[in-house]
Amino acid sequence: MPIVIIMPILGWSWVMLSPLVMAAAGALGFQTLTGDKLKDWLQKEIDKDRKNLRKVNVALEQIMADIVAEELGREERLDFKKGTIILTFRKDARGKFHVEVTGPKSLTMVELLAMGDEFARMIIQQFAHHRIARELDLRGVHIVGEEVNENGDIILHTRKWS
Asked: Directed axis angle between helix 62-69 and helix 109-138, to 10°?
């Protein structure tokens, strides 16, 4: 069963973004993993499988990476696990944002990159949607409806009351 790993070190914005990330992860078949033993469990799993794992970095357009990177603090991370695949969103100590995919060596780098890219784009769409909704609300504009077209684009219907 797919598992989502959420590190508890995320900043204040995580409270607002959590439902969006959970919805996107759930739509892709991921399950949340929490608890005090999370770090130990993850380390044991990674140590056990390290010899058979391959890690690749997903290259995102800068504008896409910036959407999520602004919400994470330095040295913060989000880890998601689905089967044998681990997807990590993290910002290092220098503030550089990374999306990493770790999986078995039986999968090619191209396959791992494709999985990571698909998931990253879905999460980034949710972060962008949240940011736009927040900005519209600050400007007194209300979202009165939403549509998702066949391409996966989200169309917002708004109204501003004077």
From this structure: 60
